[in-house]
Amino acid sequence: MTVTAPRGPMGSVAPPPRKNGMDDVRLAMTRNLRTSGIYVALVALVALFALITGGASLSAGNITNIVLQYSYILVLAIGMVIVIIAGHIDLSVGSVVALTGAISAITVIKFGMPWWVGVLAALAAGLLIGAWHGFWVAYVGIPAFIVTLAGMLLFRGLTLFVLDNVSLSPFPEGYGVIASGFINGWLGGNGYDVFTLVVFALGVAGFAVSQYRSRKARMGYHQPVPPLSMFALKILAVGVLVMAFAWKLASARGLPVVLIMLAVLIMAYTMMMQHTVFGRQIYAIGGNLAAASLSGVKVRAVNFWIFVNMGLLSAVAGIVFSSRTNGAQPGAGNMFELDAIAAAFIGGAAVTGGVGKVVGAMAGGLIMAVMSNGMQLMGIDQSLQSVVKGLVLLLAVAFDIWNKRRAGAH
Questions:
Q1: Is residue 63 over pLDDT 50?
Q2: Which residues cross the membrane (predicted)?
Q3: 109 contact partners, CB below 8 Å, separation of at least 6
């Protein structure tokens, strides 16, 4: 029995049936369901706490305080999501934050060196710690969970030793600018800072151009994209939310220095993960280690540098935290690793590795920050706050597993 293709007019072979345009739209809208859902959840959470607190959570001063108080967690989340994408975990970052802050304090306060020397000493210590972890994980083959668990104990003990189990403060004025400084007044303004608004407006314009170019590229490869009206609505919504955030900062003390540093890190690491060979190799290792090895990826070297990078970012967080608290404490960084891990998973990273984005981890970190800040404004007990955070993390991972099962069923 011979099967022939259906014939069209004049005996020509009929073209295959076209997909319904709505199917393309539906596919484009659901392709990044989880990531999009994170941003919607963040906006909904902000609106909920604004309603409950009578608008106190959206005051200019409180918005600025959120940026200052949780910036170091977001720095840690950038490194942690990369570690998780590669299929590892790092339990030591809180202890590394404490140790690098202590080294900076000893250098500047005890030995009287300039504040920038303390910064360099902390960064060097972070790189060495990262190399230590990377050696054991990448070249000896010990699982990262064990290596960093040992590191958590080891570097906490070294912190107590370096500080002689007592706090050390204060830092000189220049060091405090890192976490508590502001840029304002450059372009004037009456009751608000024009420079802050201009910087954020340029950021929105850059985002719009980037999204438009990405849309054109997908269309060039005949990939489904949402309708132009929905695309424009997305850009408008992002622009309104970002400029509302900028107005709050501009109405308070201006543009925080630490926010500039965080923005630079986010852009740099997003570029690295999405547009460099090293970033693609990280995804390949986390997605399928055997296939990555057979494809020529130098797995050991990549894993080594992943942990070196995590050590560096832990040192940056240690500098920011010690600057924020104007000193070094033996108990600094306690539970920071859990906040960073939670931010990565809530932001879309997969438990099995191979999936995740830097911007998603930032959204997850902001969800944790907004929750913590909102519950503090409501006067909720610290123990209950921990319960809520734990449930949110559990639900985020459960949703990841459910999403994969649903995708597999289809």
A1: yes
A2: 38-60, 66-86, 91-109, 115-135, 142-163, 192-210, 231-249, 255-272, 302-321, 341-371
A3: 168, 169, 170, 171, 327
